[in-house]
Amino acid sequence: MKTGFIGAGKAGCSLSRYLAGRQTEICGFYSKTPKHSRQAADYTKSAVFLNLEDVVKESDMIFVTTPDSVIGQIWEAIKKLEDQKKVRLGGKIFCHVSGSLSSQTFSGAGERGAFACAAHPMLAISSKDADLTGAFFTLDGDERAVAAVSSMLNDKGNPTAVIDPSCKKKYHMAASAASNLAVGLAQMAVDALADCGFSEEAAFTMLTPLMLGNVKNICEKGTAKALTGPAERCDCQTVAAHLAQLNGEDKEIYRLLSMRLLSIAQTKNPTRDYSKLKTILEEKDQ
Prior knowledge:
Blueprint: E1 2-6, H1 10-19, E2 25-30, H2 34-44, E3 47-48, H3 52-58, E4 61-64, H4 68-83, E5 93-96, E6 115-121, E7 137-141, H5 143-155, E8 160-162, H6 168-178, H7 180-195, H8 200-221, H9 223-226, H10 230-233, H11 236-244, H12 248-268, H13 275-282
Parallel strand pairs: 1-2, 1-4, 2-3, 4-5, 5-6, 7-8
Antiparallel strand pairs: 6-7
Helix pairs in contact: 7-8, 12-13
């Protein structure tokens, strides 16, 4: 299937390089920055499109890999091209890779004979050559579009699942909590170690085995079996000492997350009494 890309950033470059193969012929890129289009085209030995009209004409499937806020604008511009009889959308598949937006962003696609899809990789894409091997993709949209994109991904060995479009915001929140918010917690730990006199490099040397081991246990055993530490042990004295070291938002973050840990700990240890620790954590001004 001839596949074109609108947007030549990290997602577009990584996905195009990954998908190129026997099922997928990358025909080219269009970007508002021609330099980026040329760089992306060099990656996949494909064409540079100078306008939306050409990429739509030449492609059977079009991936819109722009920032989320631009996807709707791109789609409206494409529909206008058809209204001006410059392109025909019938039979073409349009797909974006946003985690928070659904395929409904391509409003009215079905009325024009086109097929809409959203396909989001549960993976942080931090560079133009991110490795998507094994990444889990969630999809929603028209049956034909979902089937076509699923086939491309399954051919590469990627697991996929269909999600209800109404759940995309909560789904994306879950991904952000597991990924982006974890970065904030890591920084909180690094800052605390800096107060103890350690450099950032030393802090990460200390924390890396702890963080990697914990993530491994969570993924392999689940949250309850992976949980350790003072909250799980109901060590009130230690938790109170931790709270005494914190101020402002850091203290509130520790308090609220520890409250969440109590519910997990109670599942793990149903006969243990956590009421005293809960009282300590519920006291906001300590």
